[in-house]
Design brief:
The protein is mainly α. The protein has a two-stranded antiparallel sheet with strand order 1-2. The protein contains 15 helices and two strands. Helix 3 runs antiparallel to helix 4.
């Protein structure tokens, strides 16, 4: 029998065709693969490089605008690949090669940020166009092997191809026109999924897989806060003031983690069906300002540690970023509950609403407060959110009462908080 074993027979799982993930029927259909985790780690370098422009000594509102121009395409590039792999499952040789190609492009993209800031954005634009071209190739490959997916995959391929072509054209025009083409291309990218309409529902992203991907990405951007503390404290003099700010920054990051995963349940299952399309879009697009706010918060925190008297812009950006995070948590909670729930249980939701909108109203304090009191103010508000999540949610209490009525012990103790 051993004489019939081939030395060069390929593993069949590497040659599989793509499958619709929620129809795959395997036990791990919703599980994030090791390849996806490796791919996500590549974004750590890009996000860190893009975010670090906000730490420069001359960083002002103009630099913040440039940061937005680079962060949004990077975020959308990740979203595009995440949604593709959440709809179509295939850990094959072709998918591994295409993922490796994207990681290589990401490395070049990270190195191009500095030159783009100096008025030479062609390489960055070319890298983003290459990322979208690879994604278009994946959709066309899937359309070839899964005919029933073509109304969705061909529409996505057409829209993303048009957007990628604008990025390529932007490499040949002067800088003011370059950014205009970027904006037009991003709008096409953002609206292409919306135009797919009912086809999005027929082949939806996996209800467990896509929230897990977004949860992992949230942890990645929260890691910037930890890195900011490490970089800031390694370069700063260890005074009681800096140590206190370092501790507050880490507590703030921990509170954001707590509220996202334990409070608003941002990474819980989210299903796309005909009745939940609008809610699903709110859930998705709320993550853009959330992740943006986390990165800006981390970079502002690092500037506080590196400079004894940071400029007013740094304090304002920090306050706006933290308030933006709180508002995004509020929006994510609203995607998990309906209006009648929030109206019936105002006693449960109102304290969180007061804290959230209090943070928004406290933004003008950045013009008055030094960094340490400013950080203490917003950290205290987030700690208040965390303490409020210790309460058992109304639905958990009702479930406990139902279980007690049946004579069974309740296992539902998970809180929900806006």
């Amino acid at each position: 029998m051993s004489s019939r074993i081939s030395r060069w027979r390929l593993r069949p799982e590497l040659m599989h065709r793509p499958r619709v993930r929620h129809l795959a029927g395997s036990a791990d259909e919703g599980k994030v693969s090791w390849l996806e985790l490796f791919y996500d780690l590549a974004f750590v370098a890009v996000i860190g490089t893009v975010g670090h422009v906000l730490v420069k000594p001359d960083a002002d509102y103009r630099i913040l605008g440039q940061f937005l121009l680079f962060f949004i395409p990077v975020w959308w590039a990740w979203v595009g690949q995440a949604f593709y792999l959440s709809r179509f499952q295939h850990d094959t040789l072709s998918s591994r090669v295409s993922t490796l190609a994207q990681i290589m492009v990401l490395v070049v993209m990270a190195t191009s940020v500095e030159s783009a800031l100096k008025g030479q954005p062609a390489l960055f634009a070319g890298c983003y166009a290459a990322m979208r071209a690879i994604l278009v190739g994946q959709y066309l490959y899937t359309a070839w092997h899964i005919p029933e997916s073509r109304p969705l995959t061909l529409r996505y391929a057409a829209g993303f191809s048009l957007a990628a072509s604008l990025w390529v054209i932007s490499m040949t025009v002067p800088v003011p026109m370059t950014y205009g083409l970027w904006l037009a291309a991003l709008l096409i990218d953002f609206f292409t999924p919306i135009t797919a309409g009912v086809h999005n529902v027929r082949i939806p992203p996996h209800a467990a897989h896509i929230p897990e991907r977004f949860g992992l990405f949230t942890i990645i951007v929260l890691g910037d806060e930890v890195l900011a503390a490490m970089r800031g404290l390694s370069k700063a003099v260890w005074t009681p003031l800096n140590l206190a700010m370092g501790a507050l920054g880490l507590v703030l990051a921990f509170c954001v983690w707590w509220i996202y995963f334990e409070g608003v349940r941002g990474a819980d299952h989210v299903r796309l069906n005909p009745t939940s399309v609008r809610n699903f879009r709110r859930w998705l697009y709320s993550h853009l300002p959330l992740h943006l706010g986390i990165v800006v918060m981390a970079m502002g925190f690092e500037r506080f540690l590196l400079k004894e008297q940071p400029p007013l812009e740094a304090r304002v950006e920090f306050a706006v970023a933290v308030a933006l995070i709180a508002v995004c948590m509020h929006l994510l909670f609203n995607t998990r509950t309906d209006r009648s729930y929030r109206r019936e249980f105002q006693w449960y939701t109102r304290p969180h609403n007061v804290l959230t909108w209090g943070m928004v109203l406290a933004i003008p304090s950045a013009w008055i407060l030094p960094p340490l009191p400013l950080m203490a103010l917003y950290t205290a508000a987030f700690v208040g959110h965390v303490v409020l999540t210790w309460r058992m949610s109304p639905e958990a209490q009702m479930e406990e009462m139902r279980q007690d009525a049946k004579g069974h012990p309740s296992t539902s103790t998970s809180p929900h908080a806006p």
